[in-house]
Specification:
Length: 269
């Protein structure tokens, strides 16, 4: 049922000419988090690599990071929303970490009070004539109307709730690639602030070709005539795919199996 729902959504976009629009003007937007599950002492790196440790006993600050990636492979540099005092404007740690990881301090939005801060980012860019896809989160409707419609996007498409994690090039691929790179090289004594800045750094350095491939894979843009069977094969993996596509699928399946294993471990605790 999840596969059918995802396929129907993708087929609808194809049939409506969504992907005939200028690739420079097609965007997927989403949020990711710096949360560390259950304050685990160990984080996880590549198979066969040295397991990285996170020695801070209390993970106090969890920051949300806004991302946007384009069909042409471009990105808008990610922005973090934080209430960590170490990341407030003028804080010594902010200046030091941003310089160390080549991240602009302007891309950290310090917001100690509750509220929806998505306007702080969206208003800084032109969405006129853009096509935008996103999940059905309430962040995109801070005043009731979709924020991208408010800012003159030509079309806004909301991904279905159940399969959106498999469809979104942000959720499914972009975030995973960057966060895996961050975890694999994380210093043992990294602070919450450093984890946030490091995540921004790695999100900002995913290649154009990789971003483009995420779109092509998830939306079946390299399939002449999308079918449900082809979509299910894409989700499961297929020996007919090119080697690089097979590797992408194996990586995604490994990440999913690790996620399921973590959930099972959490449930038993």
């Amino acid at each position: 049922m999840c596969a059918q729902e995802g396929y129907d959504y993708i087929l609808g976009l194809h049939n409506s000419g969504f992907f005939l629009h200028d690739p420079n003007l097609i965007w997927s937007v989403d949020f990711t988090s710096t949360a560390i599950k259950k304050q685990r002492y160990h984080t996880y790196g590549p198979k066969g690599g040295k397991q990285q440790k996170y020695t801070q006993h209390e993970h106090t600050y969890t920051d949300n990071i806004w991302t946007a990636c384009g069909l042409d492979g471009s990105i808008i540099l990610p922005h973090a929303f934080s209430h960590n005092p170490a990341l407030k404007p003028g804080a010594p740690a902010l200046s030091f970490l941003c310089q160390q990881y080549d991240v602009s301090p302007d891309n950290i939005v310090y917001c100690p009070d509750a509220g929806n801060w998505v306007y702080n980012v969206v208003k800084n860019y032109s969405w006129e004539d853009c096509y935008v896809v996103h999940d059905d989160g309430s962040s995109w409707k801070p005043k009731g109307e979709d924020i991208f419609t408010e800012y003159k996007a030509a079309r806004v498409s909301t991904m279905p709730s159940n399969p959106h994690g498999m469809i979104s090039p942000n959720d499914c691929n972009y975030h995973s690639v960057a966060k895996e790179a961050e975890r694999a090289s994380r210093p043992d004594d990294a602070t919450d602030a450093e984890i946030t800045i490091r995540t921004l750094h790695y999100l900002g350095n995913v290649s154009v070709d990789a971003i483009r491939s995420f779109w092509h894979q998830n939306f079946m843009l390299d399939v002449k005539k999308p079918t449900l069977a082809a979509y299910v094969d894409m989700l499961r993996g297929s020996n007919n795919f090119k080697p690089e596509r097979q590797q992408v699928h194996r990586d995604c399946m490994d990440a999913y199996e690790e996620f399921v294993a973590h959930d099972a471990e959490d449930a038993s605790e």
